[in-house]
Fold this sequence. Notes:
With about 280 residues, the protein is of the alpha+beta class. About 55% of the residues lie in helices and about 20% in strands. It has helices at about 1-25, 35-60, 65-95, 100-125, 135-150, 185-200, 225-235, and strands at about 160-165, 170-180, 205-215, 240-250, 255-265, 270, 275-280. Strands 4, 5, 6 and 7 form a four-stranded antiparallel sheet that branches.
Amino acid sequence: ALTLLATGLSVGAVSNQKLLETIQSQRALLKPPTPPALVMAAASIFSKEWLYRITRKVGERLNSQVVIANAWHHRSDAYSSVLALLSIALAIAFPSLIAADAAAGLLVAGMICMTGLEILEESVRQLTDSSNHELVTRLTKLLKHKRTDQPKDKDVLSIDRIRARQVGSAAMVDVSVTTPATLSSTANRAVELRIKDHIMKQEPHVIDAEIRASAPDVACPPLTDVEQQTKKLLLSHPQVDTVTRVTVYCHDASLVDVDANVRLLDTSSHNPIPTSKTTTA
Length: 281
């Protein structure tokens, strides 16, 4: 970005000096450009635009501002060639307008400086870990479209919050969604993993996604503690051999439902009964 700014200022200074010299000098002493200059300017336009498109595509895939800045350097060269082509054509057709080449140089310098400022602003934003509003907009459309069109995502009632923070060339996102109160903690966890997987696949520059899925107005106690206490309580029963599964359903901050699958001991042979029993607490 700083290189582009320096280039723009340099081109502007040279063009301004040339323009003043052209105005102050005798036009009769200046020779107009020749047709081969038109051919070279046209060739430069096509080659620089081709380099711009290829380099920008690579920069966007890598999310590298350095590569994108290099691409814009090619685009600024293409702009310069367009203005050079016009100024050369004017100078050939109207020799009295020989100063058009220097005037075009001033316009090119202005465009190069504007491009450098835009890239500098983007680079500073990445260095300061600022919010990425463009990514937030893309994620909002992505998740709303997924929730509407895919039946397995009907369990997401609403998307409450989406935040994205730029970390260098990558990004980190934070998403909160509301799910039905009937979903268990395991089901909510499955929703979180599904949304995270979808975001990571669609946005390769996202290095981490924190997803929170919860029912409205429900503040569950620590689910791990509930599961561990349930297992401990069930295993303390003399007829329980193992606890194969514990699922916690949160209703509010003080009420949860617990479904547990257990294997019971055969009291006569002291062997586990190959059946399961579900209990609710």
